[in-house]
Amino acid sequence: MGETPRCRDAEWTLSRPSHLTSTQRLTSQRLPRPLGVLCLDLGVPRKYFSLTEANRTLPLVKRVVADITALHPKWRDLVYKYELAAAQARPDWGESKEQLDLRAKIEAVARQIQDYLLELEQIGCVFKGFEQGLVDFYGKLDGREIFWCWKQGEDRIDHWHDLESGYAGRQPVPEVVRG
After folding, report:
1. CB under 8 Å to 127, separation ≥6 — which residues?
2. How confident is the model at residue 63 (pLDDT cuts 50, 70, 90)?
3. pLDDT tens-digit profile of 155-176?
4. Residue 2: which residues within 8 A CB-CB, separation 6 or more?
5. Distance CA 58, CA 77 (A)
6. I need a labelling partner for 147 at 20 to 30 A (CA). Which of 17, 50, 111, 125 fits?
7. Distance of CA 108 to the CA centre of its chain
8. Which region, left, alpha or beta, applies to residue 2 given φ > 0 means left and ψ of -120 to 50 means alpha?
């Protein structure tokens, strides 16, 4: 698939308990995170979908989103375990073997998620949320740019929102557009 595009901040700095020494904080270092909503511009040109075109992509989008939402809790659990190991580590010894093993697992899961996110980006949609499996598709309605909005569990795209309003601005697709 080639090299995965990266964002300026494509790494995640751990939040560390304040009781850790500065050396312990340094040994936690930075862990990779899935890019997701934190990095939407991966250099793929914007594609505009009609409602019908966006709905046609859903069988593939549903499978990719299912993979992402299944992997994200695994990534989050590994990061939590890493934080616990870092809190118990001896600061003068650097990362323990347990931390190094967890870091390798975190990196592997983050790479998998990033590959899935890139796949969605190449389809032309925008992944918006790990918890609900939100996906937006650029579209046009009454001559203005909008997002056709779909979330995991929905059979088809039945909602849209303005680019600026986000999920909170979701509205039902007008009957005249639905056809």
Report:
1. 36, 37, 65, 68, 117, 120, 121, 134, 135
2. very high
3. 999 999 999 998 999 999 998 7
4. none
5. 29
6. 111
7. 15
8. left
Q: What would the two tokens of residue 99 be?
A: 């931390």
CB hemisphere CA count around 5 (13 angstroms): 14
* pTM (two decimals): 0.76
Rounded to whole angstroms, the Cα distance separating 135 from 128 reads 5
**Contact 157/150 with Cβ under 8 angstroms?**
yes
HSE value, Cβ hemisphere, 13 Å, CA-based, for 117? 31
What's the longest Cα–Cα distance across the chain? 67
Separation CA 9–CA 154 (nearest Å): 32
**Per-residue 3-state assignment (H helix, E strand, C coil) for the chain:** CCCCCCCCCCEEECCCCCCCCHHHHHHHCEEECCCHHHCCCCCCCCCCCCHHHHHHHHHHHHHHHHHHHHHHHHHHHHHHHHHHHHHHCCHHHCCCHHHHHHHHHHHHHHHHHHHHHHHHHHHCEEEEECCCCEEEEEEEECCEEEEEEEECCCCCCCEEEECCCCHHHCEECCHHHHC
Confidence grade of residue 93 (pLDDT, cut at 50, 70, 90) = confident
